[in-house]
Amino acid sequence: MIEYLNEHKIEGLKLAAQMKELRKIWSLVKPSRLQPGYQKLSLFSEYLSGLDNNDFYNPQQYIEVPGQFEGTLLTEPMPGKNVKIASVKKELLLLGSIKRPKRITVHGSNEKDYHLLIKGGEDLRLDQRVQQLFQIMNKIFREDPTCLNREIYLKTFNVVPITNRLGSLEWVDSTEPLKALIQREHMRLENGQSLN
Questions:
Q1: Angle at Cα 80 formed by Cα 78 and Cα 86, nearest 5°?
Q2: Does residue 134 sit within a domain?
Q3: CA dihedral of 10, 12, 13, 18, whole degrees rounded to 10
Q4: Quick one: three-class SS letters along the chain?
Q5: 46 phi and psi, to 5 degrees?
Q6: Into how many domains does the chain fold?
Q7: Is 105 inside a domain boundary?
């Protein structure tokens, strides 16, 4: 956006022309108007876009990959063993649902890439509690011989609320939204008729 402003000087324009130019700029950066698909990370966060950290052992200089503290509170966290963010991929995947969540890819200090779903406008604390409940249920399933023999378990993922309006979720590959599953099954049962 800074490049755009430098390239298109609006200081000398009349008020109406300035307003028109500002509306044009707003339409370029307003997230809800961006189309789903890959976008530049710098449109959403210049800080993350410029993050390239190699000093993993200086606590003032690193950010840990979210979701590394397991559900147990019986042991004290050991941040020295956690993976730190070395860099963030310069483009993100903007998803097409109403709140426009974003999938970012961070490169960890262990040379692995981690996909995180960043959601805004929602309180993820309840989602975090549900995942913790599923972890407790999995522990019960492992202790029950019948469940253990049937290999019954719930797939869980990490949810990290950052504020009451923003948080990150561990990206789970090979999944599809429930709506798509219902739509596909409805079309199968109703001879191709859509729910819409």
A1: 130
A2: no
A3: 30
A4: CHHHHHHCCCCCCCHHHHHHHHHHHHHHHCHHHCCCEEEEHHHCCHHHHHCECCCCCCCCCCCECCCCCCCCCCCCCCHHHCCEEEEECCEEEECCCCCCCEEEEEEECCCCEEEEEEEECCCCHHHHHHHHHHHHHHHHHHHCHHHHHHCCCCCCCCEEEEECCEEEEECCCCCCCHHHHHHHHHHHHCCCCCCC
A5: -70, -30
A6: 1
A7: yes
Work out whether the CA dihedral 26, 27, 28, 30 comes out positive or negative: positive
CA within 13 Å, CB half, 142:
7
Q: Phi/psi at 52 (nearest 5 deg)?
A: -150, 95
Report if residue 110 sits inside a domain: yes
Whether 20 maps to a domain, the answer reads no
Q: What is the pLDDT of residues 123-171, one digit of tens each?
A: 999 999 999 999 999 999 999 999 999 999 999 999 999 899 999 999 9
The pTM (predicted TM-score) of the whole model is 0.72
What is the token pair recorded at 8?
């298109």
Contacts for 159 with CB less than 8 Å, ≥ 6 apart: 67, 124, 127, 128, 131, 167, 168, 169, 170
